[in-house]
Amino acid sequence: MATSNPGWDVIEEVGGSARMEALMRAFYDRLFDDLMIGFFFAMSDKEALIASQIDYVHAHIGSRQGDYQGPPIRQAHQKMPILVGHFDRRHQILIDVLDQFEVPPHVREAWLGLDRAMRDLVIRQGDQAREEMGYEVFRPKE
């Protein structure tokens, strides 16, 4: 999922540590408050998520100078019934926040590429998600 080493540091490119934290805080504030996906975050520690996401992004794009110690993406999300629409909503919020913070185009593209690469690791297909949530899945008789 990581990009090649392009010689730039993502934290410096967005304006330093304080600006990166402000960007992530804006992102997670929107995620927590979102009507479509906020329920995924209801029992989460926002501060821990912000710190972890900063480490993850820093370790996976740009010169990859960060040190991400969290669980693998698939493992961290495996118990969540994340559908395509949920993922797409989160991705759009990321786009909006990156635009709001006027992230440089090369950083924006690398960051969105990293985010898109997570898609197949976290989403569930409809039947799988419904079964995991305890809903009966309709199966036509053969």
Automatic annotation (TrEMBL):
<dbReference type="InterPro" id="IPR009050">
    <property type="entry name" value="Globin-like_sf"/>
</dbReference>
<keyword id="KW-0349">Heme</keyword>
<keyword id="KW-0479">Metal-binding</keyword>
<dbReference type="GO" id="GO:0046872">
    <property type="term" value="F:metal ion binding"/>
</dbReference>
<keyword id="KW-0408">Iron</keyword>
<dbReference type="GO" id="GO:0019825">
    <property type="term" value="F:oxygen binding"/>
</dbReference>
<dbReference type="InterPro" id="IPR001486">
    <property type="entry name" value="Hemoglobin_trunc"/>
</dbReference>
<dbReference type="InterPro" id="IPR012292">
    <property type="entry name" value="Globin/Proto"/>
</dbReference>
<dbReference type="GO" id="GO:0020037">
    <property type="term" value="F:heme binding"/>
</dbReference>
<protein>
    <submittedName>
        <fullName>Group 1 truncated hemoglobin</fullName>
    </submittedName>
</protein>
<keyword id="KW-0813">Transport</keyword>
<dbReference type="Pfam" id="PF01152">
    <property type="entry name" value="Bac_globin"/>
</dbReference>
